[in-house]
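Exercise: predict the fold of this chain.
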Amino acid sequence: MSIVEVAVPMLGGRRMFHIDKGRRWSVVEHLMLDAVARQPSSAAVLSERSCLRPRVVIEAFIRLMRVGWVELSSTENGTVFSATALGKAQLGASELRSATTRDKRWMSFRCDQVYGGVLRGREPFIQRNLGTAPSPECKTRIFLERSLAYETEDMSAIFAALAGEDEVIVGIDPSSERPLAGHALIKVKDGEIEGLPTRASDELRDAIVRKAAEALPPDPNRPAPRVGPTATPFAQNIKREVMGLFEQRDLILDGSEHRAALDKVLATATDLIVIHSTFISPEGWRDLLPKLTSAAARGAQIHVLWGQSDDQNNSSSSRTEATVFRSKVEQMGRAEQIVIHPFTTGSHAKLLFSDDGRGQWSCIVGSCNWLSTDFSSYESSINARDPVMVGELLAHLSAMANAHDGLWSQTAATFTALSRRIAAMPRGPGRTAKMRILLAPEHAELVLHARDNARKRILVTSHRLGIAAKPMVVVPALAAHRENQVECSLFYGRATGAHSNLDTAAQTRELARMGVTQRPVLRPRLHAKVLAWDDDALAVTSQNWLSADPADTAYRREIGIFVEQNKLADTFMRKFELARSG
C-alpha cells in the first residue's frame, strides 16, 4: 500500500454573517407589478410586450396575488390583472419589499489557494509552519504550490459557498481577525483521497492525485491516476465566457461620448455609483463635484476609488487630491453619501459602475480616467449591461475596495452581496454576443490567441509605446504576418520610458521592412487601448498593449472586456480611421 501526504495551501476563517432568509422578488415580478399598476392588462398582452413566455408571466402574477398585491378582474375584453392599493404602495422603492427574515450566524470556511475553491466548516484542519517530515504511517510528504491568483481569499466565492437555499448573505460584522494561512494535510492511499470534503472541486482533487503520483517511485504495475484533463489559463478563461447582452451602441468611443456617458450616470442613478479612476486631478474632481452632489441628493451612494501607485516619497498626486476632495465633501456635509477612499487600489483599471434609476445595472470598462480627464482624448470603453458580467465586475471592485488583504471592510462586503444579487438577475431581451472579462495576466494570452486565429488583420491602439511592446505584441504580430500574411497595424500616442524618438523611428522602419505598420497618432490625442482582429473580435481595456505587461501577481492591475460580434471589430476600425484622418 502506498500512502502519500499532500500538503494543500489553504486559508481558514470564521465570521459573523448577516443573512436574509426567504424568497426575494425578481426583476420580472417587479416589472409585471409596475405594468399592471399603470394599466390593467392580460397575461397574453404582457407576454407579448415583455418577450417572456406566458408561463413565466402567469407564475409571476400567482406569486404577486398570494401577497395581495395583484388581483384578477373581468372586463368586456376578458380577464385582466390589476394592482391593488397595497401593490401600488410597493413601487416607490427600487426593489419590492421581500418577505425575508434577517438572521445572524457564525460560519467557518476554508479557501484552497491552488484553484480558489471554498469549503464550508472547519475541515480540513489547517496547520501553520508545517514541516517536510511525513507522519509515521506515510513515507512521503509533498507540497502543492500556491497559485498567485488565490493568495488572498475571494469574498464573492465565500459568500456563494456559505449561503444556503433561499439565503442571501447581505453583510458581515467587522473583525480585525485575519484568515489563518497554512496547509491542510490530505492523504492519498493507492490513488484514493482521504480527508478532503466532498464539496472540494474536481480540479483540486486531480491536482492532489497528480502530486501524490509524482512522489512515488516508478512502478510499471501501478495503474495511472484517474484524473481529468488539464487546461491552460486561457482555456479556463473561456469557460467564463457568456452570451451577454450587447449592442454596438455599447461601444463608447472618443472623449465626447465618454463625457455624455458619465453625465447620464450622474443624472439618473438613484442607488449606487462606484467610480474607479487611476488618477484624480484637481480639475477632474472639482468639475464633477456639483453633479456628484446632485446624485447624492437623489439618494445615490457614491464611492470613489483610485489606483495610482505611491512614488518613492510614499505619496502620489492622486492621494493628495483624494485628501483635498474628501475634505471638501466633509465641509459640504456629504461625507456619508460621497465616500472618497483614502488608499490606492494599485490598479490601472478604469470602471464606472451604477444603476439606471429603474432597477437595472451597468459597468463601463475601458481607458477613461473619469476623475482626471478633460474628455479631449480619443478613448474607448464598453458599457457592460449583462447581469452576469456586471455582477462579476462589481465583485472585482469589492476586492479592490479592501485596503488590506485579510481584513474585510464593510464596503467590500456590501459590494460582494450586491454583486451576487445582480448576477442572479434575469437577462432581459436584446441582442447578445460572446463576452468575457479580461484580467491582467489574460491580456498577453489574448494576444497569442489573436496571433493564432487572425486571418486578415490585427489592429492595436495604445496610449504609450515602450520596451514591453516587443515581447507583448510585436513578436506575435510578426508571427501572424509571417505565417498567415495577416495585415498588422500598431498605433500609439507617445513613446515612453527608455524609448527615445530615434529608437522609435528605427523600430518603425525595421517593422515596416518586416511587414508590420507602427505609427504615432497625435490628433486626436490617442488614449484608447484596443486589440481587434478580422471583422468580429474586439478587446477594450485599461492596459497599454504597447508598453505594459503586468505581473501575474497583480491580477486586477488591468481590467478589460473581450467581445465577439458580427462586424464589431470592423466598426471600430472604420470609426478609428475616420477619427485619425479627420
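Check your answer against the key: The first strand starts at residue 3 and ends at 21.
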